[in-house]
Each structure stands twice: as C-alpha cells, then as structure tokens.
Amino acid sequence: MSFLEHKTIIKEGDLVLAFIGGDNLKPIYVTPGQSVNTRYGTFSHESMIGLPYGSQITSGKGYGFIYLLHPTPELWTISLPHRTQIVYTPDSSYIIQRLNVISGSRIIESGTGSGSFTHAFARTCGSKGKVFSYEFHEPRYLQAKKEFEGHGLTNVHLTHRDVCANGFDVKDLQTNEPFYADVDAVFLDLPSPWEAIPHLQSVIAKDRAVGICCFSPCIEQVTKTIEALQKNGWIDIEMTEIAGKKWDSRKEMIREVDDAVERLKDIQKRQAEGIEKKKVWIEMNKKQKEQDVANGVPLDERKRAAQELKEENKRKKQQTERDYGFNPWGKGKRVMDGDENYKWFDVSRVGSELKSHTSYLTFARFVPQLKK
Ligand code: SAM
What we know:
By secondary structure, this protein is of the alpha/beta class. The chain contains nine helices and 17 strands. It has helices spanning about 75-80, 90-100, 115-125, 140-150, 165, 195, 220-230, 255-295, 300-325; strands at about 15-20, 25-30, 35-40, 40-45, 55-60, 65-70, 105-110, 130-135, 155-160, 170, 180, 185-190, 210-215, 235-240, 245-255, 345-355, 360-365. The strands form five sheets. The protein has a seven-stranded mixed sheet with strand order 9-8-7-12-13-17-14, sandwiched between helices. Helix 6 (about 195) links the parallel strand 12 (about 185-190) and strand 13. Helix 1 (about 75-80) runs antiparallel to helix 3 (about 115-125) and helix 2 (about 90-100) packs parallel to helix 3 (about 115-125). The longest helix has about 40 residues, at about 255-295. It starts with 14 loop residues before the first strand and ends in a 6-residue tail after the last strand. The structure holds S-adenosylmethionine (SAM). GO terms for molecular function: tRNA (adenine(58)-N1)-methyltransferase activity. It is found in: Nucleus. Keywords: Methyltransferase, Nucleus, S-adenosyl-L-methionine, Transferase, tRNA processing. It is an enzyme of class 2 (transferase). Heterotetramer; composed of two copies of TRM6 and two copies of TRM61.
C-alpha cells in the first residue's frame, strides 16, 4: 500500500481509513485478530481483507456501517495521530498551487512535525520528484521515518537536523555522500524561519526561479521573516491568510399550510396518547416494585430490572415513531432527501469555518540571475 499509487483490493497489513461519519476517520492497519470499535458497532479487520477500497461494511447487527477508504493526503490529515500542530488541506492545497509544485518538483520542507504536509507534497511531486524534509526532534523524526516507510513515500528524504543551526545540505542515505538538492520550492513551518533562510542558498536551484512559503502564526514572526528574505535576495514578497469556510448544499422539503395543520393535530394526538401511556406505565412500575419488595428481590436485581424496563420502553417508543408514518415537522418516520413523493428545493448555506491552524503565509521568489 502506498500513498503514491492507487490499489483496488485491501490486503493484510494495508492502511485503511475507516470513515465513520463527518470528520470522523480512523486509521486502521489491517491485522487479522484485531477489530475496530465505533459507535456503530465492532468491525473485525478480517472482514475487510479481500474487499475493494470504498466498500461499505456493516457491523453485523444491522444498524451500523462504515466505509473503507483508500488513504489520500487529505484524509490522512484529518485522521493522523497529532504530534504537533499540523498544516490542514485548505492551507496545503493553496501553498502547493502558489509554489507551482508539480510532478517532478524538488521540495524542501522543515520541520516535518506530524508529517501532514509531507504526504501532500510527496503525492504531488510523485516518483519523479523529491521531498527533502528535516526534523530536529528525535522521537518525531523516528516516528515520521516509520510512517513514511509504511506509507510507501519513497520520494521523501528525511533528515534529523536542526536547520537553523546546521542548514539544509543533504547526504545520500545509502552512501552518506553529500549531493546538491537542486530544489524548486521551500516550505518552512518553524518557530524562527528567519534563522533558516540564510542557509538556503547552497541547496536551491541555480538555473530557475525558486518559490518559498513561510507558515507563521504571529505577525512579529512575519516581520522578521520578511527582513531575512529581503536581506538574502528574495523578491515578490507577499503575505496571505487563508480563512476557509464550508458551504453546505442540500435539499429542503417544501412545506404547505396543510402540513402545519397536520402537525398541530399530531401534537395533540401524541400529547393525549403520551399522557395516557405514561399513567399506565407508572402504575405498572409501582405494582412491580411492590411485588419485588414483597418477594425479597435484592436491590441490585431490582435496579437492573428497572433499567431493562426503561430500555424496552425506549425501543417501543422508537418503533411507535417509525410506525406513525411521516410528518414533515414532527417526529416520525424519516424520509430520504429527494424522495420523489415529496416536493423539494435546493438550498446552499455557509457552514462552519474549516478546520485549519490559522497562520500567515509569507510567499517570495528567488531568481538566480537577479542576485547581486
Ligand atoms: N508542517 C508540519 C505538519 O504539517 O505536520 C508540522 C510542523 S510543526 C508545527 C513544527 C516542527 O518543526 C516541530 O516538529 C519541531 O520539532 C520542528 N522544528 C522546530 N525547529 C526546528 C529546527 N530548527 N530544525 C528542524 N526542525 C525544527
């Protein structure tokens, strides 16, 4: 399994992203004998082997299902184990486009952090490109190394290094011989990028324009970064901030005046029935309690029986709701969006702000022949 290619069938050891709902995705390394617990039930890893990615599986209890998705950088960003703040897709996609990263591009990225952005860079650069990623925190470096190997990111060259102190020069991972990285674009997600900027000259391309983006949460960092960029010959400096929002589009049912009348009648009916049913239930419960006390049933046992009765009552209530049929405003049987037995119109609404670690993005370019 690799983030750089697509495979169809899930095999033992593969990474599957279990889509549970909304932004809830669980990464699973398919291991026979293990299972994943969700609020929709328990799903054994074995049941996933041999299925095509994208399959929907049920928990066997008939009420819950999940989807088995093929990993992508975007889904990984939502589901990865956080070791640091991460770059989210609204920022990474914009940065990739602004830096003109394409198949074959050679990139510098530091720090690696949780590897969220590394996956997006690696997929875009593809097998013809290279991502030179640097992390100075050893446990994070080791974890990232393991993850990149497991995810088939063969185009990522990971180095354990403090780039502010020791720069970006790279060595061949097999021979340990230094080589020229010749990079097209640089992305710095560091607390003090201005200390790393002077070290870039020896690794960036000498025959074409190079782009840079520095990701900083504070405006004071931006100011210092801009000063360092100017001092080191970078031009076209521009600062941008991404504030992404979700737009929800869905169908809404057209409700007529007659529906409102139906709704009022329904409320009255339910109130009358509900009160009657509640009276009967309280009476039954009271009698049962008296009988249990008289028969010497222990307190624990009585509590358990009361809980069972409560659950049974809840089940019956849900069944009654389903049997009631559909009421456009009331409780009752659910209707699928777009059901052709009802009238609908399309609505689009601005939703919540997109999950992202809001930072200022400082972009610049270095054009070798303009260097004084
Ligand atoms: N962009 C990453 C992602 O999307 O997952 C997150 C990067 S995280 C915010 C910043 C990382 O930079 C941390 O893991 C930190 O250890 C590392 N770091 C900080 N200063 C560094 C330096 N001088 N050299 C190398 N890594 C550094």
